[in-house]
TrEMBL record:
<protein>
    <submittedName>
        <fullName>Methylmalonyl-CoA carboxyltransferase</fullName>
    </submittedName>
</protein>
<dbReference type="GO" id="GO:0016740">
    <property type="term" value="F:transferase activity"/>
</dbReference>
<dbReference type="InterPro" id="IPR034733">
    <property type="entry name" value="AcCoA_carboxyl_beta"/>
</dbReference>
<dbReference type="InterPro" id="IPR011762">
    <property type="entry name" value="COA_CT_N"/>
</dbReference>
<dbReference type="InterPro" id="IPR051047">
    <property type="entry name" value="AccD/PCCB"/>
</dbReference>
<feature type="domain" description="CoA carboxyltransferase C-terminal">
    <location>
        <begin position="280"/>
        <end position="512"/>
    </location>
</feature>
<dbReference type="Pfam" id="PF01039">
    <property type="entry name" value="Carboxyl_trans"/>
</dbReference>
<dbReference type="GO" id="GO:0004658">
    <property type="term" value="F:propionyl-CoA carboxylase activity"/>
</dbReference>
<feature type="domain" description="CoA carboxyltransferase N-terminal">
    <location>
        <begin position="17"/>
        <end position="273"/>
    </location>
</feature>
<keyword id="KW-0808">Transferase</keyword>
<dbReference type="InterPro" id="IPR029045">
    <property type="entry name" value="ClpP/crotonase-like_dom_sf"/>
</dbReference>
<dbReference type="GO" id="GO:0009317">
    <property type="term" value="C:acetyl-CoA carboxylase complex"/>
</dbReference>
<dbReference type="InterPro" id="IPR011763">
    <property type="entry name" value="COA_CT_C"/>
</dbReference>
Length: 530
């Protein structure tokens, strides 16, 4: 077949200019068709789309411009010299999403199982370099079997080039990894270096060592999805930020995320016209949050009430659910929201919540997204597991991220804010630009009951009626040090506001802070806690 094609190409070239154009059209047709209908049918039978079908869903219609379509590998041995398909198993190029430029590469599983070889890697390197130079987001549609074993170490070196560019682009352009098939071994580290990871349930997996290796080394029996499926990474490991049931929904959500992000770190997220009045009062907020600090409620409903049209995109929705991280808009301006979730573990900070929020804060700061922090936190989660797991250094990640952030930062204490967790959650003392509180707030070192047990321990022990004395001391401590205006009187809270006016206060504050310019000390880079 290859000989016949070569003869046809020579004949076309000998027939003049028109023949050359015909030859080009024939080559392009073969490149676009890929390995043929049988391979496409097999891909569809797996519940997966082809690379070009995925790109068609991601980008605006007719906007895709392909780069390196005619690239072919030059490897020999193991029969590779007889198999030299165009594209070499990856489709690369750029297009638009809602009219804004986006670069993309998509593995074609139908060609070499999407495995990465030297030419394949070179195409990805080029498109990554182009994205960085153009200052535009990069989306990778991953569906590959790892390094192309037949090409040996050259394939591994290709991954090294990708990792190096992922790191160089970090914090410069948004990088989004969409997992639409298997991703094993070193290949999994590229998504881990990007800003967001999307996965599709049942068809995508990520792991360093597969089930066969796990079985051989540890004797554990596990399926591909049980080891590294979307459910595992969205709920247990935290590797995956978003998980969906099908590729169409997944790619639609990637488009939505891109609409909330700037093209690069030198620009601001796109602002849209908002029909939701910024002066809208939310009387329901006072009822959503119980005055009793021990009663749970759904913080997501508070977020929904505050943001434009109740719409927001929650990041890591199923992992570390005791804290909410979300992108939303206020009066058309994109904001990042970090909020304790009292429905889960009473909203405490633990290892997972600290890591989740720290990475989100860093992402928002990198891409000029203002931060709003909603506090209702009883402290850090106590326990041997937390201490031995390194809650000190993990909690310090969130502290470092907030202290290092130079974007506009507004914090709001809804109900309680105790101890070190209050300080870490963007208190005024670590650099919040504006700090507000609702009238029922309690800002203190700890709850009144615990404080009374420490401060008045002797009086309670010596009393004729210890319980009555304890109750009196709790009441006294709360009246002296935990009344709603204690922090405001000392300048630790800028204002105590009516919950119904929260949306208007936040919008006006953001408008004032829009031109904020915070100069950081000159340094090569910080050394954040690990």
């Amino acid at each position: 077949m290859t000989v016949l094609n070569d003869v046809a190409q020579v004949s076309a070239r000998l027939s003049g200019g028109r023949g050359c154009v015909a030859e080009l059209r024939g080559i392009r047709a073969r490149a676009l068709a890929g390995p043929g209908g049988e391979a496409t049918a097999a891909q569809h039978a797996r519940g997966k789309l082809t690379a070009r079908e995925r790109i068609g869903l991601l980008l605006d219609p007719e906007s895709f411009c392909e780069v390196g379509q005619l690239r072919r590998h030059r490897a020999t041995g193991f029969g590779l010299e007889a198999k030299r398909p165009y594209t070499d198993g990856v489709v690369t190029g750029w297009g638009t999403v809602e009219g804004r430029t986006v670069f993309v590469y998509a593995h074609d599983f139908r060609i070499f199982g999407g495995a990465l070889g030297e030419a394949h890697a070179a195409k990805i390197h080029k498109i990554m370099d182009m994205a960085i130079a153009a200052g535009a987001p990069l989306v990778s549609l991953n569906d590959g079997a790892g390094a192309r074993i037949q090409e040996g170490v050259c394939a591994l070196a290709g991954y090294g080039g990708i990792f190096q560019r992922n790191t160089r682009a970090s914090g410069v352009i948004p990088q989004i990894s969409v997992m639409l098939g298997p991703c094993a071994g070193g290949a999994a580290y590229s998504p881990a270096l990007t800003d967001f990871v999307f996965m599709v349930r049942d068809t995508s997996q990520m792991f360093i060592t597969g089930p066969d290796v796990v079985r051989a080394v540890t004797g554990e029996e596990v399926t591909h999805n049980g080891l590294g499926g979307a459910g595992v990474h969205a709920e247990t490991s935290g590797v995956c930020h978003f998980a969906y049931d099908d590729e169409e929904t997944c790619l639609a959500e990637v488009r939505y995320l891109l609409s909330l992000l700037p093209p690069n770190n030198r620009q601001f997220p796109p602002r849209v016209r908002c029909a939701d009045p910024h002066t809208r009062r939310s009387k329901v907020l006072a009822d959503l949050v119980p005055a009793d600090g021990s009663r749970p409620y759904d913080m997501a409903r508070v977020v929904e009430e505050l943001v434009d049209d109740g719409e927001y995109l929650e990041v890591h929705e199923r992992w570390a659910r005791n804290i909410i991280c979300a992108l939303a808009r206020l009066d058309g301006q994109v904001v990042g929201i970090v909020a304790n979730q009292p429905q889960v573990l009473a909203g405490v900070l633990d290892i997972g919540a600290s890591e989740k929020a720290a990475r989100f804060v860093q992402m928002c700061d990198a891409f000029n997204i203002a931060l709003i922090t909603l506090l209702d936190v009883p402290g850090f989660l106590p326990g041997v597991d937390q201490e031995h797991g390194g809650i000190i250094r993990h909690g310090a990640k969130l502290l470092y991220a907030y202290c290092n952030a130079s974007v506009p930062r507004i914090s709001l204490v809804l109900r309680k804010a105790y101890g070190g967790a209050y300080i870490v959650m963007d208190s005024q003392s670590i650099g919040a630009d504006l700090t507000y509180a609702w009238p029922a707030n309690e800002i203190a070192v700890m709850g009144a009951e615990g404080a009374a047990d420490v401060v008045f321990r002797r009086q309670i022990a010596d009393a004729e009626d210890p319980e009555a004395m304890r109750a009196r001391m709790v009441k006294e401590y709360r009246a002296e040090l935990m009344h709603p205006y204690y922090a405001a009187e000392r300048g630790l809270v800028d204002d105590v506001i009516d919950p119904a006016e929260t949306r208007e206060v936040l919008v006006r504050s953001l408008a004032m802070l829009q031109a904020k310019n915070a100069d950081l000390p000159s340094r090569k880079h910080g050394n954040p806690p690990q």
